[in-house]
Specification:
Elements (H helix, E strand, L loop, with lengths): L1 H18 L3 H28 L2 H19 L5 H8 L3 E5 L4 E5 L4 H6 L1
Antiparallel strand pairs: 1-2
């Protein structure tokens, strides 16, 4: 529901920019595009409900593309280093993500 609202708001802004101040064109563009977005979102949800593995594949693709960005972010990288108390190496393969801590961290020592 929230995604539908955000996509619709984005669509309203895009259609308003394309209409270039012409009100009839704006109304026609919104009347055509908003139902298409809602129907498309409903279709995607129906497909994801029937083929649940697609959710896991999407999460895998997202994690594979975002993990390097998060790990190398200047604001997050030092915090991860401090939290893990050691060097973190990130090995990204097409099939898995392997995160290794090079030094023993206090968190791991407490669990032993």
């Amino acid at each position: 529901m929230i995604a539908d609202i955000v996509m619709s708001l984005d669509n309203v802004i895009a259609v308003a920019a394309a209409a270039n101040g012409q009100l009839p064109l704006l109304i026609l563009g919104l009347a055509i595009s908003i139902p298409m977005i809602i129907a498309g979102a409903a279709l995607i949800m129906m497909i994801l409900d029937r083929i649940a593995i697609l959710v896991w594949l999407g999460a895998h693709c997202w994690a594979g593309s975002e993990a390097p960005l998060i790990a190398t972010d200047p604001a997050i990288g030092p915090r991860l280093h401090k939290l893990l108390d050691g060097d973190v190496s990130l090995n990204i393969d097409h099939h898995f993500i392997d995160i290794r801590v090079c030094e023993a961290s206090p968190i791991r020592q407490r669990n032993r």
